[in-house]
Amino acid sequence: MERIHVSVRARPLSADEAESSPWCILGNSISIPNHTTKFEFDRIFGENCKNNEVYNVRVQDIVSAAIHGFNGTVFAYGQTNSGKTHTMRGSRTEPGVICLAVRDLFDVIQQDMNREFLLRMSYMEIYNEEINDLLAPEHRKLQIHESVERGIFVAGLREEIVISAEQVIQLMEFGECK
Ligand SMILES: Nc1ncnc2c1ncn2[C@@H]1O[C@H](COP(=O)(O)OP(=O)(O)OP(=O)(O)O)[C@@H](O)[C@H]1O
Hints:
Blueprint: E1 7-9, H1 15-20, E2 24-26, E3 29-31, E4 38-40, E5 43-45, H2 51-67, H3 84-88, H4 97-111, E6 119-121, E7 124-127, E8 130-133, E9 144-147, E10 151-154, E11 160-162, H5 165-177
Parallel strand pairs: 1-5
Antiparallel strand pairs: 2-3, 3-4, 6-11, 7-8, 9-10
Helix pairs in contact: 2-4, 4-5
This protein binds adenosine-5'-triphosphate.
């Protein structure tokens, strides 16, 4: 199985965008009609798809693997206004993949009677090439280091021990208010 998957998520277009966009989605490829330009992806989620579907199809396996000891990363990349926050953070009416992942994570580990888990959470931003700790607003301009024991890490980043999905979501809200 490939280690890196690249998915595209199309969001609903405004009337202006729909008029000017030349792109056409067919299956898992995007192309310009009557043109040779064509890009293929592992998966394309159409504009009617919900965060739940993105989570179930693309993210759940990564969370599940993490519980079994594999490192995993999910990140959203795209131009401004393309739907990164909608997908990752979501809203009260439609939680994003981070909330869905956190809930799933706690559900799964609570059912596992044979192991103990210790979960720690960090939350940081990279803004104007500076790393700021969103859980400890006084920790600004942090540095990236590398060591044999820890691999690549951000020195001085706060790590909170977390015991419930609600606690993680509250900490995220705290970080976003700063
Ligand atoms: N799949 C979707 N379905 C419905 N509305 C969406 C979808 N994706 C994004 N939107 C809406 O489009 C707008 C832009 O989305 P969003 O704020 O998530 O973009 P962004 O990539 O995070 O932008 P920025 O980089 O500027 O922060 C928002 O109003 C959002 O609610």
